[in-house]
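Entry for the shared binder. Reason: the reviewer on the internal report wants the predicted structure included alongside the sequence.
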Amino acid sequence: MPASRKTRALLGFLVLSEAPQRRDRLCDLFWDVPDDPRGALRWSLSKLRPLMNTGGRTRLLADRERVQIDPGTISVDFHKVRMQANGETEKASTLEQAWERANHLLMENCELPNQSDFGAWLEHKRGEVSRLRIRLARHLAMSGDAAPENTEVWAERWLMDAPFDPVAAQCAVAAKRRLGRQHEAESLAEEMDRAFSEAGLDQPDWSVDPIATGVSFTPIAHELNTEETPQQVVRFAQSEDDISLAWATVGKPDNPPLVKAANWLSHLELDWEAPIWSPQFRELAKSYHFIRYDERGCGLSDWDAPEISFESFVKDLELVADAAGLERFPLLGISQGAAVSIEFAARHPDRVSHLILFGGYAAGWRHTASPEEVREREAVMVLTETGWGRANPSYRHLFSQTFMPSATADELAWFDEFQARTTSPENAVRFLEAFSTIDVRERLKDIRCPTMVIHSRNDLRIPMSSGRSLAAQIPNAEFVGLESENHLLIGREPASMEFLKAVRRFLQTEA
């Protein structure tokens, strides 16, 4: 391994990230400006090439803009452990080996104290390893056919990593009882009672034997935090033109509300388990009563919609806010949902306490595009109508790769399938046409609530200039730039954590 700590850290980041990384992003993550970041990056890559490109294989791929380690040419323990932790049919011996792999500090001696963004990314990844280790120990402890001695070992390991998980505590106590060690079981129960009480938590019910009753084992995605959030509740509201609109709430009802306007595309059930944006949704649901809905024409809402237009989008947001019984609330608008949110806030200044706009724009391409761009976009709409529902995802890739250029192959494949299951080819074209005619430029000056505009600096779908323009024209708006090229943030990227941090800080300000 290279002697340079930063070079080792760079190697670990490239291996675990899988997707191509922009050189500018790597420079910001690992080097300060006075250090000649581009020169330092070139030096580190020169040290990694002879290490990676061996046996006639080129594993380290680099051009003038991007750097990547080809994921198809290497085997990574981290990815194996994640796959095995999410599998239901793995043998006990395989899970035990996976736990041993996870029982080591990820990227040891690669910490960079002065690089806060890299530190946040590394902390997140180490947290994921810890959660995978918990998951493996839980599965082994809950295995009904394991020997009692093994059950006790894995229950104790589970409890060690998750000391305030009541099921882990119940399992550890039950395992000792099964071995006939009643006194040890009672002592552990008393110790846990004190710990839970001091932490302000309800004490576990020691009469429950989770080994006998079983606990569900469901796959997890790349998560920011795996603490359980309340299950979402889906309801339906009826529009004036007789459309059944699906909307959902998640999070404690006594938490402050946060409404997310609909954007391309959504499905309340499928995207709650998404490997892409569900981590942000789940995090928001821990602090807020999070409310979102499927736009007419997609998801769980009626697909057979007589009207799909900007005006119908605004009315649907009004319908959901009324159905949820909300008088005044913060509003989150993403992509074209930002324009819908702007119009709503301008129409109802007394109802919106805070306005958050991410990846937004004020005017669709029919108002701003050159004749050449118009022809190109209209051609895409024709391709969409003819190819959207086909098994070959190449047509839907037109959208996937511009929405999330740094997504992995698996993430793009998920998004391609998600799009196909979310709406019909006809409705996809109707949505694109509706988005093209959006124009709220004259409404920006009418916004009266505190507003924060967030935009990915290298967004390939909607350029950052659109976000800057929004912030410049909305009175007293705050602007936050994120180090990402994704129009839709991916849960695993550091920019996703920065987005959540900015939202939480902003919503704490007085309206």
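Summary line for the report: The chain has three domains: 5-73, 122-213, 233-364+438-507.
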